[in-house]
Amino acid sequence: MPKGAVPHEGGVAFRVWAPHAKEVFVVGTFNAWDKAADPLTKQSDGWWSGDVTDAKVGDEYRYRIVSDRGEALKIDPYARKVTNSVGNGVILKAASTNPAPFTPSALNRMVIYELHVGTFGKRSNDGPGDLEGAIERLHYLRDLGVNAIEVMPLSEFPGGYSWGYNPAQIFAVESDYGTPASFRDFMTRAHELGMAVIVDVVYNHLGPDDLNLWRFDGWSENDKGGIYFYNDERAETPWGHTRPDYGRGEVRAFIRDNALMWIAEYGVDGLRLDATNHIRNRYGHGGPEGQLAEGWSLLQWINEEVHKVRPGALTIAEDMQDDASIVADLQDDGAGFNTQWDGRFVYEVRQALMATDDGERNLEAIRDVLLHRFGADAFARVVFTESHDEVANGKARVPQEVTPDDAGSWLAKKRSTLGAALVFTAPGVPMIFQGQEFLEDSWFRDDNPVDWSKKDRFAGILRLYRDLIRLRLNRDGNTGGLCGQSVDVYHLNADQKVIAYHRWDQAGPGDSVVTAANFSAEPRQDYRIGLPAEGKWLVRFNSDRKVYDSEFGDVGETPVTGEAQEYDGQPASGVVELAPYSAIILSQ
């Protein structure tokens, strides 16, 4: 049955779950906030319902819940729109559950751009950025070449500034960002420009501030949160006593319904579930003693339901526990996600980029993360060097970490772009974080907007990212192997800090791609590496090109000749030049 406020020809139907309430009333602008004018009727299952003939779309409302502990005015947990996190629900016209169709790119041909509306969509000096501001920059993302946008949480949170991982009302679009209509406009425009939209959702905890669900119907048996939350030690999370009760049917349905709302009512193309490790485990890690079996089954149920409603929808887990069961199929007792963030990749690559001494760069670890995968699918992982987590919480952007006093230095540019080359040539789904493509520095803050002046100041670096994205998606038809499942890291020189690897789908000209990377401050000249075939290998990309930065050297531009000389276990070999902290990409 419908939940929340549902308009119809004769008024509005209201339905709310409050099993311990003695009385429930709906109050609002339609009855001048009369406390007793519109009582709801209790059903046998703990739900209260009723019709209000005078209520209409646009009216504000709350539930007045009377319990043994007194009474409280509560926002509808299912409200699609609220005036703010401590305000009122707003009755909306029922949304279409059949948005315009859009087919996102397959995982092996997807590049994700993570953005935060409040800092990405900033247009004026007052308040945070908004969805309208973000819409104005969608053309920029299309021109950059990305084909999927991951939006940090959009659900209503306290105040106007937040990362969004403290949701107060998970069904309502953040009021400082705009309205449900604003987000639908964002969706429509992104799809018109050929970009999928993935929304970040937070189910591992709720709140903790402005938490309307806390003791929603007046009941609690201790100092915990009542009907929506665990009421024992399982409530504990790093964000307070706010873990939802994944074992209670109404709470499970509440979370499932929210996931389906984004898919069915807004037409989003995917969901990224935050900190799934804290849904399936009390501690977020560890052995059987912390496991939450009902949390695991909830993840399975969400994936099953999402893919039933929209088989092509994408679900992404942020689990970070290096667990292949997260992306294993449901029939194999897996959680059923399509892909997950790879914590090992980001950790090892950042370590290699940020080490102050070349001798500390661990190329064996780089080899291992290039080869790493979850199960059989190379694209069951998302690879990146920057995300909202990786550039905050005591960490900064890669250029800032490399040279803290000058994020625009030669060294910062060289090492950060070397990392970008790895992200776009490694097996996996590449992701970048807003501003990474033009050397955004410092650390991520919700009140510090993207510095768009850097787009012009570092126009060459922006071009480098465009070129990498173009190659990664094989838009010129000569790097098909970057969309393939296969990888062979066949050359590793731990002393001179050079690594080379082969990516392919079917192999052969236009398919086989070789990446060679120099992780040292010394140029490598007349340096021999193996090659998968004889003949001419063209330099499709060279991170040392002067067109990317005037301080770069154009070292390594010469085509490489594959000679009939076995080397590195390959049937042919050739001599390459590699500038300091640089990578080249070759294909035939």
| Cα-to-Cα separation, first versus last residue | 59 Å
Shape: elongated
Number of DSSP helices? 13
**By CATH's scheme, which homologous superfamily of the largest domain applies?**
Glycosidases
- Name the poorly predicted regions: none
Topology at a glance:
Blueprint: E1 4-8, E2 11-17, E3 23-28, E4 41-42, E5 47-52, E6 60-67, E7 70-74, E8 89-90, E9 112-115, H1 117-120, H2 131-136, H3 138-144, E10 148-151, E11 155-156, E12 169-173, H4 180-192, E13 196-201, H5 249-264, E14 270-273, H6 277-280, H7 293-309, E15 314-317, E16 339-341, H8 343-354, H9 363-371, E17 381-383, H10 398-402, H11 410-425, E18 429-433, H12 454-457, H13 459-472, E19 486-493, E20 498-504, E21 513-518, E22 524-531, E23 535-542, E24 560-562, E25 572-578, E26 582-587
Parallel strand pairs: 9-10, 9-18, 10-13, 13-14, 14-15, 15-16, 16-17, 17-18
Antiparallel strand pairs: 1-2, 2-5, 3-6, 4-5, 6-7, 6-8, 11-12, 19-20, 20-21, 21-26, 22-25, 23-24, 23-26
Helix pairs in contact: 5-7, 8-9, 8-11, 11-13
